[in-house]
Amino acid sequence: MKKRTLSLITAAALAALLMTGCAQAAAYNGRTTTAPQTGESTTTDDAVEVAPESTASAPVAAPASEPTTSIAGGADAANGYIGEDAAKAAALEHAGLAESDLQGIRAKLEYEDGRAVYDVEFVRITDAGAEEYDYEIDATTAEILSYDYDAEYYIGTQTVEGSGTAVTADQAKQIALAHAGVAEADIRSLELETDRDNGRTVYEFSWKVGFTEYDYEIDADTGEILSYSQEQDD
Fold first, then answer.
1. Which among 43, 105, 137, 186 could disulfide-bond with 118, CB atoms 3.0 to 4.6 Å apart, if both were Cys?
2. Rounded distance, CA 135 to CA 38, Å?
3. How far apart (Å, rounded) are the C-alpha atoms in residues 107 and 5?
4. 66-150 adopts what CATH topology?
5. How close are the terminal C-alpha atoms of the chain, in Å?
6. CA angle 44-50-56, nearest 5°?
7. What is the pLDDT of residues 11-69, one digit of tens each?
8. Are 66-150 and 156-234 in the same CATH fold?
9. Helix, strand, or coil here: 92?
């Protein structure tokens, strides 16, 4: 009888011990345990969660790109450029026109062969037709590098005195030289072609003075300058 009582006691103790172990395991899984004897609640090491290190980097400003189009006055001044207004003024002074005479004008900063230039274009409308101008101005010195004038749709009324309605090639040449302000003795490589353009006979002249090349187109009937250009030969 004593043996049976002892076995029952032993079984009960084992059951109690197993229940205590399960409770401790459950508490451990919940990351909280009870310190032995003191009964104080403590947190195990694995209960501390560390936030992952941020991988985001601070924003970096994009590098400033080299200007390729028209730049406002502030940037022009910072780069040592004369500015759009000064480029327009240089072109208009050369053409002998005022901005109020024009129907439109624009200036754009460009880079050609490693050099900054302003491309200035403007149009003048008259009772006789339209005149188009195109200038290239050095962005740092305001030097006129090239210019082009085109009055292709211009209806000329000018005639050369004593020539009636026809202009000789020599007369057309003198008209072109006088307009360019060039003496015939200073020119070289003069070329002349007679062509038909939009139903008209025209004289096309080309010559050089130093390193500058000139091109003119003269109406053979009226002596009107239909187009001209001047460009420095690099």
1. 137
2. 96
3. 113
4. Nuclear Transport Factor 2; Chain: A, (3.10.450)
5. 127
6. 175
7. 555 455 445 554 444 444 444 444 444 445 444 444 444 444 544 443 333 333 344 33
8. yes
9. helix
Backbone angles phi, psi at 13, to 5 degrees: -65, -40
Return d(Cα 228, Cα 54) in angstroms, integer.
Answer: 67
List, for residues 107-163, the tens digit of each pLDDT value.
999 998 889 999 999 988 877 677 889 999 999 999 999 999 887 544 444 444 444
Amino acid at 139: A
| Percentage of the chain lying above the pLDDT 70 cut | 60
Look at residue 125 and give its three-state secondary structure: strand
- State the pairing for strand pair 188-197/32-34: unpaired
The set of long-range contacts for 110-118, using a CB threshold of 8 Å and a minimum separation of 24, is 110/68, 110/69, 111/66, 111/68, 112/136, 113/234, 115/139, 116/79, 116/81, 116/140, 117/145, 118/82, 118/84, 118/87
Domain 156-234 has CATH 3.50.50.60: no
Q: Would the pLDDT of 75 be above 70?
A: no
Amino acid at 111: Y
CA dihedral (72, 77, 79, 83) in degrees, to 10, reads 60
Q: What are the residue ranges spanned by the domains of the chain? A: 66-150, 156-234
